[in-house]
Amino acid sequence: MTDRIFSLAALTVLELPPPQMVEVAARAGYSHVGLRLVPATREERHFPLVADTELRRQTQARLRDTGIKVLDLEILRLQPQTCVADFEPILAVGAGLGGSELLVAGNDPDHGRLTERFAALCDLAVSYGIRPHLEFMPWTDVRNLSQAVDIVAAADRVNGCVLVDAFHFNRSGSCLQALASLAPERMHYAQLCDVAGPVPDDMDEILRQARNERRFPGEGDADLVGLLRTLPATVPLSLEIPTRHLMEQGVSAEQRARMALEKARGVLAQV
């Protein structure tokens, strides 16, 4: 268990600038972090690592001083108007920071075009040593595990992967049997959290929970033990657990990061 890579995801401590995030990860006992190079929404607070060379220099200094490494990079969206070549500066910065995994969202209802763009992104990323992971999310055009697997398989690129997030796995109704049939080389990291209560009927509520109110592992209703037994045994785990209610109660980013890691290790011990 001690050899498992745990990475602190940006969404867990989104209020922190990247240099401070690295410091918190080090103090809390993580070995890696995930960096958000592109904001997921227009409303969220964003720290422009791609454009701000001084912020990037400070982040690199903290990575060097703490020994923390970068696992994944967020978040590129494949949309109808996407020009994949425009992503190259982002990939270059991500690779310079040491990231090897890339989170990709599918926001194009034309799955043929989406597949072509994902393949093109894989081709662009391969020279940077980066593996794009297509993440299925119920409110996007890649709603579940089955759709993500089909697109990645059709793209047929050696560095093309599928990202399994425990929240989306639960809320999309994806099944462990389908996950068990996915080749291990298609998964180079996974996102771990827990989720409480039945699946809401309203997609806006699912989205709100995903971005604001997840649960620490073992504090919800998801079958995390089953999920972890089905995923590759050594796959790195990114702890992506936004808990707005705790933030509003004054629980610090470092406290939340520590709680996430403690709870994740507790669940992993049951596997």
Automatic annotation (TrEMBL):
It comes from the Bacteria. SUPFAM superfamilies: Xylose isomerase-like. GO terms for molecular function: isomerase activity. Pfam families: AP_endonuc_2 (PF01261). Gene3D superfamilies: Divalent-metal-dependent TIM barrel enzymes. InterPro entries: IolE/XylAMocC-like, Xyl_isomerase-like_sf, Xyl_isomerase-like_TIM-brl. Residues 22-256 form the Xylose isomerase-like TIM barrel domain. Keywords: Isomerase. PANTHER family: BLL3656 PROTEIN, HYDROXYPYRUVATE ISOMERASE. This is Sugar phosphate isomerase/epimerase. It comes from Pseudomonas taiwanensis.
